[in-house]
Amino acid sequence: MTTEIARVQGALDSAGERARSLQTVYVYEAPVRLWHWVNALLIVALCVTGYFIGSPLPSVQGEASASFQMGYIRFVHFAAGQTLIVFFLLRVYWAFVGNKYSRQIFWLPLANKTWWWGMLYEFKWYAFLVKDPKKYIGHNPLAHVAMFSFMVFLVLMMVSGMALYSEGQGIDSWQYRLFGFMFSLFTSQTLHTLHHLGMWAIVVFVVVHIYAAVREDILSRQSMISSIVSGERLFRDDLPD
Amino acid sequence: MGAATETFYEVIRRQGITRRSFIKFCSLTATSLGLGPIGTSQIAQALETKPRVPVIWMHGLECTCCSESFIRSAHPLVKDAILSMISLDYDDTIMAAAGHQAEAILQETRQKYKGQYILAVEGNPPLNEDGMFCIDGGRPFVEKLKEMADDSMAVIAWGACASWGCVQAAKPNPTQATPIDKVIKNKPIIKVPGCPPIAEVMTGVVTFVTTFGRLPELDRQGRPKMFYSQRIHDKCYRRPHFDAGQFVEEWDDDAARKGFCLYKMGCKGPTTYNACSTVRWNGGVSFPIQSGHGCIGCSEDGFWDQGPFYERLTNINQFGVEANADKIGATAAGVVGAAIAAHAAVTTVRNLSRRKEVPNGNGGSNGKSNGTTNGTSA
Question: Membrane spanning segments where (chain A) (predicted)?
Answer without folding.
Answer: 34-54, 75-94, 142-165, 197-214
